[in-house]
Amino acid sequence: MAGEGFAGRVRTSxxxxxxxxxxxxxxxxxxxxxxxxxxxxxxxxxxxASTLAGRALDPLVAEVGNEFGVAAATVALLGTxxxxxxxxxxxxxxxxxxxxxxxxxxxxxxxxxAAALLASAVAPDLWTLTAFRILAGAATGGVFPIxxxxxxxxxxxxxxxxxxxxxxxxGLTGWAGGGALAALAAPYIGWRGVLVVCALVALAxxxxxxxxxxxxxxxxxNLAEVLARYRMILGLRAAxxxxxxxxxxxxxxxxxxxxxxxxxLERDLGGAAEAGMALAGFAAGGFLFGALAPLLLGRLGQVRxxxxxxxxAAAxxxxxxxxxxxxxxxxxxxxxxxxxYMIHSAIQTRVTELVPQARGSAVALHAFCFFLGQxxxxxxxxLGWAVVGAGPTLLAAAAGLAGLALWLxxxxxxxxxxx
Length: 419
Description:
With 419 residues, the chain is mainly α.
């Protein structure tokens, strides 16, 4: 493992932070940062920058709709405009990361993300905003999934879920920051100013990553090999189970978020500020999982943690459905976040071990399915909202999450790469 058992100063390769001993004195090692820790810190900053932009507009759909004179339900589809291209670029960016270097792809995508967010901030109408939101979603698709693949490259399986939980904390910092930024800063700088701040953070992450990783020589990308690799991955039963699970999970959980502000307005509980706090509550659940992950996994094991996560996530959505009280809704979002990450981190960990020699491609398909679910979730839940109302729709999603956790636990044994 990177960062363990080396008796000298550690150097890193440009792409993967691969440790190499140089025979320096032990005193030098004491002054050298643990390369695994440094890897998580640097990649965590990139993950934070990418997730900051992902949900920053969700609490502000009413404000955007008022400015452009369109219904909030229409503006909520900006979530789909962001998540769908995120999903669609995965089969392309994953193999590119495997071929030319994962860090190079991350840097390029952060630059495009910053440019797209700045352009979004000056969009004159909803259609222009949607177009740049699509570009931003595609660019973000080359950040977080590839950081997960890099962690899979560097951290052994027995310690990987804890390492990924720490990377999730970094991503959740961006998630919570996006919701908090929207709720607290929008009254002063507007939704356009919120996007500018997100762009500056993405630019800063790109510059930090550039300082730590000079460009590496390119390697060839063979389309036939890429397609053969994807056929091989999808031929694994374990892969199909994990990808189906993460698709359903993404739709049921993330399809709710664009409707939080309209839900609070409908119940006369507030609006954008309360929706931003609810998103922060979801992120707080993820932080809680990051803190508890070593204890939970050590005491219960991965399968029991998944089942417990399904129960907690279902309880959180049920609270949103039946309790018309802001503190109850915030507590529900915290439970939803805790339960979601208990399920999701297990799926992520198993995906990183499906095909170690093509980890970027395997994680890319995982992200493709996850964000395809996220992009279709608002459409499906919106239809349910219109036909049967908010309460029954949320209760149906709760039942779906609980059932998903039980099904996934029954389908995956202790060996994450089982066929």
